[in-house]
Amino acid sequence: MVVAALVQGAGQTPGGAALSMAVPAAYEQLVQDAGNTCPEINPNLLAALLSQESGFNPKAQSQVGAQGIAQFMPSTWETHGVDGNGDGKRDVWDPKDAIPASGKYLCTIARDVKDIPGDRQSNILAAYNAGSGAVRKYGGVPPYRETQNYVRSIKALANQNNGGSVKTSTGQAATAVNAAEKMIGMPYSWGGGNATGPSKGTCCSPMGRSGASITGFDCSGLTLYAYAQAGISLPRTAAEQYAASEPLSPGQMRPGDLVFYGASASGIHHVGIYVGGGWIINAPKPGTQVRYDPMDMMSDLFAVARPVSSTKKEI
Prior knowledge:
Helix content is 33%, strand content 12%. It is of the alpha+beta class. The protein has 2 domains: 25-159, Lysozyme (Orthogonal Bundle); 165-310, endopeptidase domain like (from Nostoc punctiforme) (endopeptidase fold (from Nostoc punctiforme), Alpha-Beta Complex). Strands 1, 4, 5, 6, 7, 8 and 9 form a 7-stranded antiparallel β-sheet that branches. Strands 2-3 form a two-stranded antiparallel sheet. Helix 4 (95-112) packs across helix 5 (120-130). The longest helix is centred in the N-terminal third of the chain and has 18 residues, at 95-112. Mean pLDDT is 86; it is low at 1-16, 161-165 and 310-315.
C-alpha cells in the first residue's frame, strides 16, 4: 500500500485525523469514518490493520476461521459486530458492517488496555491479534512472535513515509534484479546481508543454524541489499518488507516484484525477487546459496507485492 503521510498521534479528537493512506476507493469513506471512532485510533492505523488482516479482501477467510475484511472470529463478531449500513443485518462479510465494527472494536480494546504501560497503539494492536487478556497478562505486547510481527508490520505500514510515495519504477526494479543476480552463488547466512552487501549473520535459525561465521545473505537481507542499489530503503524482515509494499494481483506482476511466503501477513517467513517466467532469485535456507528457484518452491506462497519508495529517492 502506498502511504503518503505519518499516522496522526493518539489522543486527537474524532474527526481530526485524515486518511492519507491509499485504500480501495470503495472503502475510503468507511475507513475515514471508522478510523475516527475514538481518539485512540485514526484512519491510517485502521487502514493498515485492514491491509494486514485481509489485503482489503471482503471474502478473506483464515485457516482458523477468521472472516471478512477485518478478520473477525465468529465469537468476536457475535459480541462486537455492528449493522453499519442500517439494513437490519450484521454481516461480517459486508465491509459496510465489518469496517465500522473494526473501528468500534479497536476503541473497546483501547479502553480494556488503557492502564497497560508502554506504547498505547502497540498494546491496542496486540490485543486485536492476541486478545486483551494476553496484553494485560504480560503488561504490554505479549512475547508471541506472530503478535510481535503483527504489531511491527502494521505500525511500519501506517507510519511509512511522510514525503509522498510512489510505486517502484521499472528502472528501479531492473536495478534490483541485476544487483541480486550478481550475488548468485553467495552463501546463505542467517541474519546476513545489509544495504552495502553480504555480511556475517547471527544465531540462530529455527533449526538452530548460525550465520555468525558465514558471510552472505538471508532472504530479506538479499532483497534489502538489491533494492538499496536502486535507492529504495526496505525494512529488515520479510514481514516488514511486505508491510512496506503494495500487494498485486497476478496480472500485475513484473520482474523486480517481491514474492512472499507464509500463512498470513504477520506470519511471512520468506521473500524472493520475481524475475519473470514463474522464477525468483532468493537466498533459500541455511546450507544453500543465492540462486534461482520456481515461484512455487514453497506451498505457502502468500502474495506478490511491489515496494514503494519516497519520491525524494526515486531514480
